[in-house]
Amino acid sequence: MGEIVDLLLKAKYILTMNRDRNLIIDGAVAVDGDRIVDVGRRDEVEKRFRGEEVLSYDKAAILPGFIDAHTHNSQTLLRGVITDHEINIPPIWLRYLIPYESLLKPEDVKLISTLTQLNMIENGVTTFLEAGSPYPEKVAEAVKETGVRGIITPSTIDVGNVPESMKISTDEAIKRTVSLIENWNGRADGRIRIWFSLRELILCTQELYLKFKELSKRYGVGVTTHISEAHAEVEFSLERFGKRPIERLHEIGFLGKNIVLAHAAFLTSKEVKLIAESGASVVYCPSIDHMLMAPPRVPEMLSFGVNVALGSDGGFKTGIDILSEMRLASIIVKQYYGFPFHDRVGIPAEKFLEMATINGAKALLWDMEIGSIEKGKKADMIIVDLSRPHTTPINDPITTIIYAANSGDIKTTIIDGKILMRDKKLVHKDLEKILERSVERGSEILKEIKTYISLTRRIK
Hints:
Elements: E1 3-15, E2 23-32, E3 35-41, H1 42-48, E4 49-64, E5 66-71, H2 84-87, H3 92-103, H4 106-122, E6 125-130, H5 136-146, E7 149-152, H6 170-184, E8 192-194, E9 196-198, H7 206-219, E10 223-227, H8 231-241, H9 245-251, E11 259-263, H10 269-278, E12 281-284, H11 286-292, H12 298-303, E13 307-310, H13 322-338, H14 349-356, H15 358-363, E14 381-385, H16 397-403, E15 410-415, E16 418-422, E17 425-426, H17 431-459
Parallel strand pairs: 1-4, 5-6, 6-7, 7-8, 9-10, 10-11, 11-12, 12-13
Antiparallel strand pairs: 1-2, 2-3, 4-14, 14-15, 15-16, 16-17
Helix pairs in contact: 3-17, 4-5, 4-17, 6-7, 13-14
């Protein structure tokens, strides 16, 4: 009769994203507790296992949950505030994002993070790497409640022209992060991990870079930082150090396998090679990168063996939607490399799926447990409905998912073996309260931001 397990998933396609990138037709996944105990052809898995609960989809694909390797949990209430006109006036992160974060209270961060993580679940994002948040313990509290998997980092700024409320001393930045690691790392059944974060080369001392690198090795965690995302940053680095940002990080021995570099848009070929040699990962955030920066050298990075993951960069301008990021990137890369090189591939569709799953897991140092559908790994999976007119016929499931499907086709999201969205319905008990309060608080914060900007302009 077969061994009884908690959950049996059956679907037309299983995109395992394992080492061999196996695609299973008419497949099944057996889940017991928080782990995958078997994956294979449906008839074979059903001989060995019976599910207490069975989810069966004739025209759907089971994928590993998407990994957002660069996001800002607390910026979502700015969605719709930063218009195209505002985007046109740089630097947006100094004009809006940093001041906004300086106005947030602890309860705001808990509220916004909950909203953000529910946004992730509905779009099939099961794991995130926080870029740096005020009140990171509140992000952690949200993770405990929503059920997502996340690496949380505090926002660390110890120098620069930012609101004083955002700035702390170098020693305090170190103490706060170490305390966060000691109190939160590994909690929520291992779904919470804590890393170090450096906001920006312009906003962090060299001492902080060196100390965080040292401490990351001691605690066995990673470090993430924004890098090479603006002309001003490159110019700052050249003036201060006589080297470009990546060259400087290489010079001080900062780069390495536990380093995640967000954006990395303004790079020379030499810098691409330095990243590749170091083993550091890069996070490509298509929507924001192409809206505000130069097109990153992603094909070149991949050709040199750089591990490239995908990120949303938070919800301040777009939805946290990694599937949409994949499609956007695939189109832009074709256009950018199509002229003048007449290269209509640039990056094949399957590579974007790797960036969103196993590459993201590798960047987050979590690839032994997540990022692919394999026996023994965590049961983090999504089910994509392919039965609609816009996804019919399915001649190639990967091409169909990247170019024809959308996040609205993600029916079910499973994290740690728990169904957090079933047939498009989020299971969070306070969903309506969260949505209502987010609208109210968003309006209040917008008024505070406008007052702040007005006062700043008068002072200048």
